Amino acid sequence: MGERVRVAAVIDETAEAKSFVLDLPPHWTYQPGQFVTVRVGEVARCYSLCSSPFTGEPAKITVKRMLGGHGSNWLCDNVSPGTELELLAPGGVFTPGSLDDDLLLFAGGSGITPVMSILKSALLRGAGQVALIYANRDEPSIIFAQELADLAAAHPGRFRLIHWLDCDHGPPTVAALRQLIEPFSGYEKFVCGPDPYMAAVQEAVAGSVRIERFESLSDNPFAEQPSSERTARVRVAIDGQNYEFDWPVRTKLLDLLLSKGINAPYSCRQGTCAACACRILSGEVKLLNNEILEEEDFADNYILACQAVPLTDDVSVTYN
Ligand SMILES: Cc1cc2nc3c(=O)[nH]c(=O)nc-3n(C[C@H](O)[C@H](O)[C@H](O)COP(=O)(O)OP(=O)(O)OC[C@H]3O[C@@H](n4cnc5c(N)ncnc54)[C@H](O)[C@@H]3O)c2cc1C
């Protein structure tokens, strides 16, 4: 199901955050802003790749300890060079449509990880302007401080780096953010950070902003399915390809597709974000949870792959 991936190096980033350089399987590719899912015993946790797929650097994740958190502390305490972790292939939709767009990036604390990947990719491969507003508690807690300073020095005409420190000004307010973002109104906007920061950014922007929410998975996508389980048959059209699989009736469609190595899109995996939405062409499914699709979406045959289990013996879905 997952693949065993060797940790090549461990880097102390701050007192609370460590980076893990990963020897990803060569057939795994990723887009800027995507994440991998890591098995930690009986649970699984997502971590954004902070490396860029275009710079030639090795793949890297950065884990910040969460007070009382199971997965983040286990990883920071136990992983050393040579450790093998079990991972699911990169996924997620927090990635720019075009690296040539002007980008306004917001990061708070460990939310810098997917933003860093987007930033480095855009500076190397894109042609637009890039601005980053990066909020942290204080200077010692800034992850990638030196790398960001180096990027700002290397791209003085294209990259504006704006640090916000709570210890100097308190947490960023909507009014303060409005002032900061004024010069960047036409830019494509992306935010990742703690919920209060993302809420303030959304209110200040008052327009479209793509968000990546860091939360722990409540399900374990690595868990074995009982082999005697009844199966349905599912046909899936995705990325111009057609697949057909046995579909164990208690397995969610997204888990099935990922276990088959298909790069199906997803983010929250809890029925709250619709990143995994696809359309049903025939057959019926049941959604175990749905906090995002509405009547009109169902009328258009949309379902959430992360919550869909089969109700009929034959099901056909499309992502195209
Ligand atoms: C797409 C995505 C990308 C992510 N990328 C990153 C990244 O790059 N870097 C990063 O550091 N994180 C990232 N995360 C977050 C990461 O997946 C974990 O959620 C995070 O590391 C915390 O996991 P944990 O197991 O340490 O904490 P958990 O054990 O899940 O605990 C989380 C919090 O809840 C509290 N808690 C736990 N159990 C209970 C309980 N029973 N009652 C009350 N409180 C409880 C804990 O004390 C803790 O404060 C990402 C998440 C997503 C979805």
Would you give an account of this structure?
By secondary structure, the protein is α/β, with parallel strands linked by helices. The chain folds into three domains: 3-91, Translation factors (Elongation Factor Tu (Ef-tu), domain 3), CATH 2.40.30.10; 103-212, Rossmann fold (3-Layer(aba) Sandwich), CATH 3.40.50.80; 231-318, Beta-grasp domain (Ubiquitin-like (UB roll), Roll), CATH 3.10.20.30. The chain has helices at 70-78, 112-125, 145-154, 166-169, 174-181, 195-205, 253-259, 295-299, and strands spanning 3-12, 17-23, 35-40, 43-48, 59-64, 84-91, 103-108, 130-136, 159-165, 188-192, 210-212, 231-238, 241-248, 277-282, 285-287, 302-304, 308-310, 314-318. Helix 6 links the parallel strand 10 (188-192) and strand 11. Flavin-adenine dinucleotide binds at residues 35, 45-48, 61-64, 66-73, 92, 110, 113, 212, 214-216, 267.
